[in-house]
Every structure is written in C-alpha cells, then in structure tokens.
Amino acid sequence: MRILFYAAKSYDKESFDVVLAKYPDIEIDYTDHELGPRSAALAMGYDVVCAFVSAKVNSKTLQALAGRGVKAVLMRCAGYNNVDLEKAKELGVAVKIVPGYSPEGVAELAMGLALATSRRLCKSYNRIRENDYSIDGLCGLNFYGKTAGIIGTGKIGAAMCRICLGFGMKVLAYDVYENPALKDRIEYVSLDKLLANSDFISIHCPLTEKNHHMINTETIAKMRDGVILVNTSRGGLIDTTDLIRALKQGKFHGVGLDVYEEEAGNVYENRSCEMNFSSTTSRLLAFPNVVMTSHQGFYTKEALNAIAETTLQNAKDVEKGLRTANDVA
Ligand code: NAI
C-alpha cells in the first residue's frame, strides 16, 4: 500500500518512521504541501492519503482524490470538521480518524493554559529574563475551592474533569450526552447554569454546524465577571470579534487559546518576519491576559506515537476493506 502523507513535519516523519518498521508492506511518501483541491493532484498513484487538522478536505479535494483512485483519507487527528463527509460517502472515499490518542495530553495543556493566564506566567517569564523582578500586574487567582465548568465531557473533557477535581475544584459540566463514568463526581447542568456559575470554563466539544460560535456576546454576558476561559477544542466555537469586545471591557481574568478562528494557514508555520497587524490573532495577542499556543494540544511524545500506531492500523483496515469505530465516512 502506498500512502501520500500531506503537511509532513519533521516530528511526523520521526514518529511514523518508527512505527512503519512494523508494516513492511506499507510505503509512505511525505510532502510538506497541505491537502487541498490543487495539491490533491499529487496523490496520483497512491492508495490512500494522510492529512492533518487544517487540510481542506472539501468536495473539490475529494473529487480530485477519487478521480485519481485514492480509496481513503486517513486523518491523523480526532477532529474532522474540515472534511465534507457527505461528499466522501457519495464518492466512496473512506475517512478514518484517530479518535482518542491522548486525551490527558490535551487536557493537561488546557490546564496549563488556565494556570499560565491566571498567574500571568508568560509575562513573568519575560520580566525575569530582563532582570525585572517586580510582580505588579501579575496577581493570579486560586483554583482550589473554585468552580470549573467543562463543556463537553467525552474523552478530553473527562480527563479535564479529573484534573479539576484533583485541584480541589467543584466541577459543573454540560454535554448533549452525560458521561456515566463521571456522574458521581461532577454535576451536569444546563449550559446557561454552567456559564453563570463557573470561575473557569474549558471547552472540549467538537465543532459542528449547530454549535458554531457557541461562545458569543450573548453567552459571554451570562458568565461571571473575572472568569477564566480556555479553548483547546476548535476555534470556530468562539466568535473572536465578540471575545475581543468582551476582553476590552475587562470581562475575563484570563483567556487561554490553543485554537482560534484564523489558525488555518498560520499554525505550524513560522511567520515571525511578516507584518500581520489587521488579523484578529494579532488583536488577541495584544491583551496581557490572553495566552495563546499553536494548536499543540496533540503534541506530546505519547500522542505522536499513538497517532502513528492508529493511523497505520487504519491503513491496514482500508487494505482489508474493514470498517471500524474509526470510520467517519
Ligand atoms: P469526544 O468525542 O470523546 O467528546 C466530545 C464530547 O462533546 C462528547 O461527549 C459529545 O457528546 C460532546 N458534545 C458534542 N456536541 C456538543 C455540544 N454542542 N455541546 C456540548 N457537548 C457536546 O472527543 P474528544 O476526544 O474529547 O475531543 C474533543 C475535541 O477536542 C475534538 O472534537 C477536537 O475538536 C478537540 N481536539 C483538540 C486537540 C488539540 O490539539 N488542541 C487535539 C484533539 C482534539
């Protein structure tokens, strides 16, 4: 089986090449091009392609892939909101994902962002490097005894609930389905009640058409003043313009974002020599109480290994024509 691996970074090659040793009949060619309608042409002669979160797996891309005989798209990630599943089904192109490679890793980053913004760790780090030992403006909040509101209690949200319980927090949760494993230790409430009663809100649900911009001016107004908000799920869950407006009004103690609306085309690229004044990302970065990372929740050694293992197993399943719980189309 031949796989064309899109948007390959050095760390992808390292983790996949190690696991590939167990699959002598699979051959991988790596390209740094992102998968999209034009770059799909590169897949001529390949059985399957492998893509990451920011790939544009839209109708045109899928048509181009199917036209070149590609049988499947292996997403090496959990989210698949950029994939046109209906088109994939219509064309008979299988789409497989890696559903839960390291939920704790993402949840740990979410708590890391919450602590970083609460205690102004990034500002503090920069000050001390300049020999500035002053601490004015760096006052944080305790988490112990406070209330965490977790939106989405699947694999990552459940790990986040456990972390917050470990911090001595009361945990409120909102999900369209309640997780029976958590019911005794946390309280499921409506979204409105969660927003109104949480000191720290962390988002862990997938982005769908229904919940696009679920955090907006109206829902932000329902939150407590001085709340900490963290998003490690998908940028489109928050209306960035509304978030910026509320930040200007001093609504939040802190905001931590691993994901944001403008990230496609930016994440994993070095744009440090470019001027980027008009983007909402640059406006977010101007706030001293906003801490941002570059969609790196997945990026731990354990997760990279698990992604490579599951993706190559998914490739074998395509070869055998097997459908599993990892199929989304
Ligand atoms: P999961 O499928 O295990 O859990 C998602 C939970 O959200 C489910 O319990 C589901 O019922 C719930 N949900 C669905 N729609 C909802 C809504 N409208 N409101 C409230 N809850 C809703 O998924 P998992 O593995 O926990 O991942 C969650 C999300 O985290 C992914 O969809 C992905 O967007 C994001 N993610 C981010 C990563 C990063 O690197 N920052 C890495 C991996 C995932």
The CATH superfamily of the largest domain is identified as NAD(P)-binding Rossmann-like Domain
Could you report the average pLDDT, rounded to the nearest whole number?
96
- What is the element string, with H for helices and E for strands? EHEEHEHEHHEHEEHEHEHEHEH
| Attached small molecules | 1,4-dihydronicotinamide adenine dinucleotide
Total domain modules: 2
Shape: globular
- Return the CATH architecture of the largest domain: 3-Layer(aba) Sandwich
Radius of gyration: 21 Å
What is the third-level CATH name, the topology of the largest domain?
Rossmann fold
SS content category: alpha/beta
Please work out how many helical segments DSSP would assign: 11
What is the number of strand segments?
12
> What topology, given as strand order, has the largest sheet?
8-7-6-9-10-11-12
What's the short story on this structure?
With 329 residues, the protein is of the alpha/beta class.
